[in-house]
């Protein structure tokens, strides 16, 4: 089992560190780096998954890859990316309450700017619920959201990449 996980650990850790790095980098340019960091996650997650599965196939498994092996490597990789990203962003927001306040304020202003559109689409009750949830938001919520949005697309990318790279011995 360890032969499956060595590559996944490497690329999952690398993807998580890159995700944290992008959050830090984007926080210098934007008052709310969360949305741009999610877009970066949609780029780095499939790349890390592809490289992890491809490296396993080529260098550990003699050029062969079953769907189950690809999914195992992919699962560990995207889970690590999500967990490392979650923990890193939570730590950053915990030690930088000004950044958290800036993110919360930006989200609040976007909500208020689009008040009429949101109310017309989902109703006043949903808008007011969103307002109350935004007031009660903590840094854990932001970090958890980022981690989840690394894991969910990772599941789909793992399936696709495992199918594409699959090669069974004859």
Structure description:
Keywords: Membrane, Transmembrane, Transmembrane helix. The chain crosses the membrane at residues 7-29, 35-53, 73-93, 147-165. Pfam families: DUF4199. InterPro entries: DUF4199. The chain is mainly alpha-helical. It has one domain (2-165). 87% of the residues lie in helices and 0% in strands. It has helices at residues 2-29, 34-60, 67-95, 97-113, 115-122, 124-135, 139-165. Helix 3 runs antiparallel to helix 7 (139-165) and helix 5 (115-122) crosses helix 6 (124-135). The mean pLDDT is 94.
Quantity of strands, as a count: 0
**Anisotropy-based shape:** elongated
> What percent of the residues sit in helical stretches (DSSP H or I)?
over 70%
What is the structural class? mainly alpha
Regarding quaternary structure, what we see is single chain
- Gyration radius over CA: 19 Å
Distance between the termini: 23 Å
Low-pLDDT residue spans: none
Give the domain tally: 1
Pfam families: DUF4199 (PF13858)
Transmembrane segments: 7-29, 35-53, 73-93, 147-165
InterPro entries: DUF4199
Keywords: Membrane, Transmembrane, Transmembrane helix
């Amino acid at each position: 089992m360890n032969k499956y996980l060595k590559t996944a650990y490497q690329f999952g850790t690398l993807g998580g560190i890159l995700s944290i790095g992008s959050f830090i980098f984007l926080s210098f340019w934007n008052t709310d780096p969360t949305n741009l960091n999610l877009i970066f996650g949609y780029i780095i997650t499939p790349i890390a998954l592809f490289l992890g599965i491809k490296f396993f196939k080529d260098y550990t498994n003699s050029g062969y890859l079953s769907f189950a092996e690809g999914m195992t490597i992919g699962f560990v990789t995207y889970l690590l990316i999500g967990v490392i990203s979650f923990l890193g962003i939570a730590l950053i927001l915990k030690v930088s309450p000004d950044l958290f306040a800036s993110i919360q304020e930006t989200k609040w202003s976007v909500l208020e700017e689009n008040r009429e559109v949101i109310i017309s689409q989902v109703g006043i009750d949903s808008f007011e619920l969103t307002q109350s949830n935004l007031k009660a938001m903590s840094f854990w919520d932001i970090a958890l959201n980022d981690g989840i949005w690394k894991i969910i697309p990772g599941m789909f990318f793992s399936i696709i990449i495992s199918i594409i790279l699959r090669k069974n011995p004859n």
